[in-house]
Write a structure and sequence with these properties.
Blueprint (H helix, E strand, L loop, with lengths): L1 H6 L15 H9 L6 E4 L1 E2 L2 E2 H10 L6 E5 L4 H10 L3 E4 L5 H34 L4 E4 L5 E5 L18 H4 L8 H10 L4 E7 L2 E7 L1 E4 L2 E5 L1
Parallel strand pairs: 1-4, 4-5
Antiparallel strand pairs: 2-3, 6-7, 8-9, 10-11
């Protein structure tokens, strides 16, 4: 009732709410998630919301779970985030706008992660079948992953170069190498294609921005 009352203050929030009254019913709902997000009370009788998050996460639940506590407790907040909570809110301090923003952010972030995982899965299937090398970097152009059938021709194992700077891997002497410049352009949102000489071979390369939601977090 309190949650519905808060969201009714947010024009066109669009949220539909369901409610269960016990820890066991909550866990059952999380095992077969049919909702976009879950609000969990910290106090659940003999057990608490941290236990519920931990048990649900251990069983593979990945939907956003937001913990509602009675009073601000930094230790509980940190623990909740470490075990899988999307956010923590103090019930006596939460406003309608705060609740609506927390729900929307958690849902949008979850959808962005799911989309990224689907894209990565498709890329890995492609890499297993094509003589290509694929990689991702962070926003400092250090490798965060590398895979693909083409690695074998370079005597490399998947993810062997993780942590290495792109220019070092591509045998570039400085930031002015065309392929290194292409990576910097990708960080600015561009997609760059071209040919490059690397390890004694000519490669057709394509570099683009790696996004999580609307934010560029690296290159691919």
């Amino acid at each position: 009732l309190i949650t519905r009352g808060l969201l009714s203050q947010v024009a066109e929030s669009g949220f539909e709410l369901d409610w269960v009254s016990t820890y066991e019913e909550g866990l059952a709902a999380l095992r077969q998630p049919r909702h976009d997000a879950y609000l969990l009370d910290f106090r659940l009788g003999a057990r608490d919301g941290l236990e519920l998050i931990r048990e649900a996460a251990a069983e593979g639940c990945q939907v956003p779970m937001i913990l509602m506590t009675d009073q601000g407790d930094h230790a509980i907040d940190v623990q909740a985030m470490q075990i899988g909570a999307a956010d923590c809110l103090v019930k006596v301090e939460v406003t309608a706008a705060m609740l609506e923003r927390s729900l929307r952010y958690a849902i949008e972030r979850h959808r962005a992660i799911e989309e990224r995982l689907r894209d990565e899965s498709q890329l890995r299937i492609f890499a297993e079948q094509a003589q290509a090398v694929l990689w991702t970097t962070d926003d400092e152009l250090r490798f965060t992953s590398s895979w693909g059938a083409g690695l074998l021709s370079l005597n490399l194992q998947p993810n062997q170069v993780v942590g290495q700077w792109v220019g070092e891997f591509l045998e570039a002497h400085d930031d002015h190498d065309p392929l290194v410049i292409g990576h910097y352009r990708a960080l600015r949102g561009e997609s760059v294609s071209g040919e490059s000489l690397w390890a004694g071979k000519t490669f057709r390369t394509h570099v683009g921005p790696l996004r999580v939601g609307n934010q560029i977090v690296g290159t691919i």
